[in-house]
């Protein structure tokens, strides 16, 4: 790949090698959050280095981990501080807006170039030294344009942060109300009947799954949705409508998998214990599930919230040395307090409201993130 820019990174940044001094906070580069105060990290990282053995980073500088720059391990500093001498510190010239550069460095094109200009025989030995960083070609607009672009991109990121805060708040509220309602600490208006303890076996019909031979092409790419734990993990919300792989009628007949009706709770009982979703179409599963088709006395949506609330109990009953697994016998014997169907539906309706809000927010976030990624990919393009 040959890439010619209108300048090189050495025209935009100079290497800062200023020795540290007492009184400055020690900062660390993280993959997700950029440059952060080391003492704020969940995983504490003590240093045996004296202040003067560190490097100084100033507001507007960019510090990067030479071994991980090709993976995006860098951060824009908003304060003066100390960083490890294993980092490179970049001092901006008058030709660059550091905020714009920080966005530019996140683009696939620049990450590719960071790797291409790094030295090392294997990935874990790759290092991007400042002299090689300075040789990397880039296309950048005038600084005034850079600043306008960076301001616009900051608005997009702030919108994502606001949505993240809303998601966290809604999830906290959902957990609070779930606990209050399912432990009967609060009752919805109009309900006072006693809840009865019921085993899963008495809630409906429990079905195990199965997998046909994977190398027989006649068993696959049919019309029968066939769920795996990966499909459940990919579900946004509580309902599953489709699966990555599908069985043919021959594939279904050649395995222990069974097609279950819509409204069945697909409950993972191997490895990712109690990850679950409700099928909206007829569907089969692999052997990593125990699926429950409720009788008319029990609401699938209520049981979804009930099982999710008691996830730790499912995990506690699972066993296995290689990976945890919950047997059909132990699954069916589990017992839970359950109200009458009318109260089940009322509770499910209340909790579904929170879930639906979270799903809507996540979809909104995904769309904004997609648009932001599109804008980022345009950075560095020739005018």
Keywords:
383 residues; alpha+beta; Adenine-n6-DNA-methyltransferase TaqI, Chain A, domain 2; Helix Hairpins; 5-stranded mixed β-sheet; 4-stranded antiparallel β-sheet; Type-I_RS_S_subunit
Descriptive report:
- It is a single chain.
- The chain has 383 residues and is an alpha+beta fold.
- The protein has 3 domains: 7-140, DNA methylase specificity domains (Adenine-n6-DNA-methyltransferase TaqI, Chain A, domain 2); 144-191 and 340-383, Orthogonal Bundle (Helix Hairpins); 196-338, Adenine-n6-DNA-methyltransferase TaqI, Chain A, domain 2, CATH 3.90.220.20.
- The chain has 12 helices and 20 strands.
- The protein has helices at residues 9-12, 98-104, 108-116, 130-133, 143-182, 200-203, 229-233, 249-253, 300-309, 311-317, 328-333, 341-378; strands at residues 7-8, 13-15, 27-30, 34-37, 55-57, 62-65, 74-76, 81-83, 87-92, 137-138, 196-199, 204-208, 220-227, 239-240, 245-247, 265-268, 276-279, 284-285, 289-294, 335-338.
- Strands 12-19-16-17-14 form a 5-stranded mixed β-sheet.
- Strand 3 (27-30) and strand 4 form a beta hairpin.
- The relative contact order is 0.12.
